[in-house]
Amino acid sequence: MGIRGMMMHRVVGGVIAGLLLFAAAPAMAESPAELISSFRLKNGEVRVVRDSTLDRIAMDQARAMAAKDDLSHDALGPFNRRVAPAGAGRAAENIAYGYDNFEKTLGQWIDSSGHRKNLLLHNASRVGIASAKTSSGKRTYWAMVIAGDYEPKGKSKGKKDKEPLVAVKREAAPAKKPKSSECHIKLLSLCI
Fold it and tell me: Across residues 72-88, what is the average pLDDT?
C-alpha cells in the first residue's frame, strides 16, 4: 500500500470513527414546548409553541416565587391580571419547585390531576416556561403559562373584550331570603 493508499485509509477510518461517535452521542433533549406538545398529542390535543409574552409572564412568576421562596400563584398578584398582556381567550398556569430539570417537573405535573388538566387546556396553542433559583441556589421554582383561543387581529370590539377569560370555579349564589316586609307573619324565622 502506497502513501496515497495509507492516507485514503486514514481518511476513511476517521470518517467512520466520526460517524460512530456521532451515532453514539446522546440525542439532543427535547425542548419544554416539544415535551408538552408530545404529551398533548398523545391525549388528543394540538401542539403548542413557545411564546415570548408567555415566557416573560412565566419568568416574572418564577422569579417572584424564588425571591420570596414561596410557591404561590399570587406571588405577583392575580393570574388573570398577569396574563392579560398575552391577549388569550383562555389561559392556565402550573407552578412547582424542587427539580432542576424540566422533564422531572413535567412528570410531576402530569401525575397531578389539576396540573394535567392545565397541560391539556383545550385549544391551547402557545406556552411559556421559566425557572428561577432562590438566592441561596438551593431551590428551583418553575412556572408554565399555557394559553389559547387567541382572537384574530382586527376583530377586537373594545377594551373589555381584550381581557382574557379565565375559568374560575365559582360557588352558586345563595337563594334569596324573602324580605321581612314580604312576610305577613314571622314565627320562629319562618315567613308565613
Answer: 92
